[in-house]
Amino acid sequence: MRRLIVIFALFAALAVPVGALYAATGDGTLVVKNGVAPAGTPVVALTITGSVIGRIGYGKIVIDAGLSSDAPQVTGWEWTGPSPKIDSAQIWKGTDLTFRAVGGKYTILVYGSGVNLVAVGKGTVKLAGIPDTPVGDGKYSLNGVDFVSLPGTQTDKLSIDANG
Which domain holds residue 65? Predict the structure, then answer.
């Protein structure tokens, strides 16, 4: 539990200065805290040119780094393999997964519970939480706006950029 608190504090501490730094360059930010969505629905479906770091209490991550980006780094996985739907994507499943995808163009799908994520760059995102749960399904902040509860149904594409 102490490790969770330290990781969460690190995400919170990084979100503000990283957001301020990238806002000056026109990049936007996304921060997700303790997200959870129904099985089969990604908490976060993100396409971004930039950097993403995150932690998942339990679930799976699908990352397509394409050919021009550095390979993402994922730890804590119990199973990994290629995506059956996207030739260039990789899947990781497990408990207490951590990941980072830095300095490239990535498509990232995050499923599960205990989703904490910080993204900086330009792109789009779809977000989802638990239906009929205004609290307890996690919160998010997009482009520096105040945190709000994750929506009960998946959003349309939202823009990640300083002009949000």
Answer: 2-160
